[in-house]
């Protein structure tokens, strides 16, 4: 019975809770029990808020019993990436510099989840300050991929993706600066969506790279992601870059797509994202997915976006530059860690010692790259040129979307790699974001949906679908249609292939 | 192509207020050199006629009504402070020996 609850979709759980077939408390308890059983092997959670989750669930049950109208995901458990503030619940951003910090306020995303009656189970592990593609940069140990616990779950949102694949939560929230929702989704066989930049408020999202950071929904099905998308999206006066426009109709699009008809939809295959550096099994999975889109009635053409080859270097200048400025706030004065304050050292010395002790190597590397790229004498060659590349990438997207409705590519060039394989080679790690970065630089919508398993290693592969800004619903329609066709072709959802975790009885 | 020296990395660390160790300097100098050489390729296509983009969404100043609204209280604001005294943030001395 409880195993059944942890395997259900969010939509099913919400319906059963609303019908009073099962209580929100039972659903929350089933997931808390599952976390207790498997998280020792997965390490998806940095903090589990048992009391808070059960209180929130009880409130939903009381409301339903009293006949109060509740939202479409009321009572459904959710895991929240530890980069979003939660009043009274620790928020570390995966860093020692914020260890033990209890935020005095909720992020807008957190507030919207609570208002919609979602039950926040806890906070998920991540690469420190969301800098990484493997969750190995967490100061609290790596998260493990439920498909193979010797492999990475992607990053930076590896905890949010692994929690879904380990059936610890049916929904989670990630944030995506260069692919941190989509790449973990791809390597864990789950759905991850980066909404249009400005579509979801950044208020209370601890900033890494402000012009790129975007929170979004993670789920095991396209419809569940859409339902969550509509809960968290929308204008927020507390975020000056929030878009004041209606939320794209993503739930309706997911339902329409599930009818399995894509006739009239024009799909562009990005020619740059193939060839050298791509795992053959990933490319075969991608080609099969494209063939399936054709069978669904879509018109498929190849589209060249030549500047996309320069997205990776542009990103690894722009994001560190913004990070070097944003992370200056960790100065050991108002919150977070302070070391070396012995009564004789100056504030400057204490600040330098604290940042040295509190930040991990990847954060230090990026702060120094950003400091370099922004320094006089280098600014034009580095940061200035990267901003120009950003213009060219937007132009490539504009030209592509003049002829096609959505663009597709593999989400990431390889399947999940072994833990430790790339930790000493930053450039190899950065290449995991090769295909996901353009949509961050241009600000448009993009998502990853599982496209089955790679035939050479049996590990999940992701299909990336990209749509123009504020046309998020287009990619949901395509993803939902594809999901139905894929499940029919494979005989079962991709996620049902996750092996039983070692030492766990179910 | 760029080649970043150990001394330059030490300078960057000082600018960024990172009291890095000697071992870290050795490691970071070689890693930053590889990374900077790789990202320098942006210069290949960034010609003078292309305008820079700082932000995907065109930004203008956003104003709100100037009305009083609830904010953090003194205790809440100080709750996360590494050190507090008399209802204020206590900080180390802010002037160096040379000042």
Furnish the topology, listing elements before pairings:
The complex is a heterodimer of chains A (506) and B (99).
Chain A: H1 2-7, H2 10-18, H3 24-42, E1 45-48, H4 50-65, E2 77-81, H5 108-115, E3 119-124, H6 158-165, E4 171-175, H7 182-188, E5 191-194, E6 215-219, H8 222-232, H9 250-257, E7 266-270, H10 280-295, E8 299-303, H11 311-326, H12 347-358, H13 361-374, H14 380-401, E9 406-410, H15 426-430, H16 437-442, E10 445-453, E11 460-467, H17 472-490
Parallel strand pairs in A: 2-3, 2-4, 7-8, 7-9
Antiparallel strand pairs in A: 1-3, 4-6, 5-6, 5-10, 9-11, 10-11
Helix pairs in contact in A: 3-4, 8-9, 9-17, 11-13, 11-14
Chain B: H1 6-15, H2 22-39, H3 74-78, E1 84-85, E2 88-89
Antiparallel strand pairs in B: 1-2
What portion of the residues of chain B fall into strands of 2 or more residues?
under 5%
What is the N-to-C order of secondary-structure elements of chain B (H for helix, E for strand)? HHHEE
Strand count of chain B: 2
Give the biggest beta sheet of chain B.
Answer: 2 strands, antiparallel
What share of the residues of chain A does DSSP label as strand, in percent? Answer: 5-15%
Uncertain runs of chain A: none
> Which regions of chain B contain 5 or more consecutive residues with pLDDT less than 50?
none
Distance between the termini of chain A: 12 Å
Helix content of chain A: 25-40%
What can be said about the biggest beta sheet of chain A?
11 strands, mixed
How does the overall form of chain A come out from the CA principal axes? globular
Please bin the fraction of helical residues of chain B: 25-40%
Mean pLDDT figure of chain A:
97
Task: Put the structure in a nutshell.
The complex is a heterodimer of chains A (506) and B (99). By secondary structure, chain A is an alpha/beta fold. Chain A is built from 17 helices and 11 strands.
Structure description:
The complex is a heterodimer of chains A (506) and B (99). In chain A, helix 3 packs antiparallel against helix 4 (50-65), helix 8 packs antiparallel against helix 9 and helix 11 packs across helix 13 (361-374). Chain A has an eleven-stranded mixed sheet with strand order 1-3-2-4-6-5-10-11-9-7-8, sandwiched between helices. Chain A has helices spanning 2-7, 10-18, 24-42, 50-65, 108-115, 158-165, 182-188, 222-232, 250-257, 280-295, 311-326, 347-358, 361-374, 380-401, 426-430, 437-442, 472-490; strands at 45-48, 77-81, 119-124, 171-175, 191-194, 215-219, 266-270, 299-303, 406-410, 445-453, 460-467. The mean pLDDT of chain A is 97. Chain A has 506 residues and is α/β, with parallel strands linked by helices. Chain A is globular, with a radius of gyration of 21 Å. Chain A contains 17 helices and eleven strands. Chain A is 40% helix and 12% strand. Chain B is mainly alpha-helical and 99 residues long. Chain B has helices at residues 6-15, 22-39, 74-78, and strands at residues 84-85, 88-89. Chain B has a two-stranded antiparallel ribbon with strand order 1-2. In chain B, a hairpin with a 2-residue loop joins strand 1 (84-85) and strand 2. In chain B, helix 1 (6-15) packs across helix 2. Chain B is flat. The mean pLDDT of chain B is 90. Chains A and B meet through helix 11, helix 12, helix 13, helix 14 and helix 15 of A and helix 1 and helix 2 of B.
């Amino acid at each position: 019975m409880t195993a059944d609850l942890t395997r259900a979709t969010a939509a099913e759980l919400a319906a059963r809770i609303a019908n009073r077939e099962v209580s929100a408390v039972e659903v929350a308890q089933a997931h808390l029990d599952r976390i207790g059983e498997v998280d020792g092997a997965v390490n998806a959670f940095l903090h589990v808020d048992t009391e808070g989750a059960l209180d929130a669930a009880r409130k939903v049950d009381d409301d339903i019993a009293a006949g109060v109208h509740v939202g479409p995901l009321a009572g459904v458990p959710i895991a929240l990436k530890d980069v979003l503030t939660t009043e009274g619940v620790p928020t570390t951003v995966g860093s020692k510099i914020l260890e033990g910090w209890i935020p005095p306020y909720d992020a807008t995303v957190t507030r919207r989840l609570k208002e919609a009656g979602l039950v926040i189970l806890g906070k998920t592990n991540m690469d420190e300050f969301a800098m990484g593609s493997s969750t190995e940069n967490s100061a609290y140990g790596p998260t493990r991929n439920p498909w193979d616990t010797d492999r990475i779950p992607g990053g930076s949102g590896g905890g949010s993706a692994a929690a879904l694949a380990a059936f610890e939560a049916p929904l989670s929230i990630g944030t995506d600066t260069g692919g941190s929702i989509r790449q973990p989704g791809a390597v864990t066989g789950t759905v991850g969506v980066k909404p249009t930049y400005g579509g979801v408020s950044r208020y209370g999202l601890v900033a890494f790279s402000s012009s790129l950071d975007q929170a979004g929904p993670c789920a095991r099905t396209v419809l569940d992601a859409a339902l969550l998308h509509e809960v968290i999206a929308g204008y927020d006066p507390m975020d000056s870059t929030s878009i004041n426009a209606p939320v794209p109709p993503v739930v309706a699009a997911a339902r329409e797509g599930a009818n399995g008809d894509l006739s009239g939809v024009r799909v562009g295959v990005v020619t740059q994202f193939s060839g050298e550096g791509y795992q053959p099994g990933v490319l075969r999975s991608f080609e099969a997915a494209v063939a399936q889109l054709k069978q669904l009635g879509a018109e498929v053409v190849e589209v060249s976006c030549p500047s996309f080859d320069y997205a990776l270097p542009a990103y690894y200048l722009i994001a560190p530059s913004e990070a070097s400025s944003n992370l200056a706030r960790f100065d050991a004065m108002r919150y977070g860690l302070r070391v070396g304050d012995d009564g004789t050292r100056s504030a400057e010395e204490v600040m330098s010692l604290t940042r040295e002790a509190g930040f991990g190597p990847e954060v230090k590397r990026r702060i120094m790259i950003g400091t370099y790229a922004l320094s006089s004498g280098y600014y034009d060659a580095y940061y200035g040129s990267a901003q120009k590349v950003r213009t060219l990438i937007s132009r490539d997207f504009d030209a592509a979307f003049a002829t096609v409705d959505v663009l597709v590519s593999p989400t990431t060039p390889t399947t999940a790699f072994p833990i430790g394989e790339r930790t000493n080679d930053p450039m190899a790690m950065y290449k995991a974001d090769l295909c996901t970065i353009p949509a961050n630089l241009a600000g448009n919508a993009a998502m990853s949906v599982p496209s089955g398993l790679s035939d050479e290693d049996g590990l999940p592969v992701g299909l990336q679908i990209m749509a123009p800004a504020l046309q998020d619903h287009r990619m949901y329609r395509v993803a939902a249609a594809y999901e139905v066709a894929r499940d029919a072709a494979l005989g079962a959802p991709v996620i049902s292939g996750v092996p039983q975790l070692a030492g766990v009885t179910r | 192509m760029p080649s970043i020296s150990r001394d330059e990395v030490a300078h960057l660390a000082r600018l960024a207020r990172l009291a890095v160790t000697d071992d870290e300097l050795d490691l970071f100098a070689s890693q930053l050199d590889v990374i900077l050489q790789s990202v320098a390729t942006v210069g290949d296509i960034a010609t003078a006629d292309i305008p820079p983009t700082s932000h995907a969404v065109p930004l203008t100043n956003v104003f709100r009504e100037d009305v009083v609204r609830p904010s953090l209280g003194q205790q809440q604001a100080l709750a996360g402070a590494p050190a507090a005294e008399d209802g204020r943030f206590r900080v180390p001395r802010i002037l160096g020996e040379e000042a």
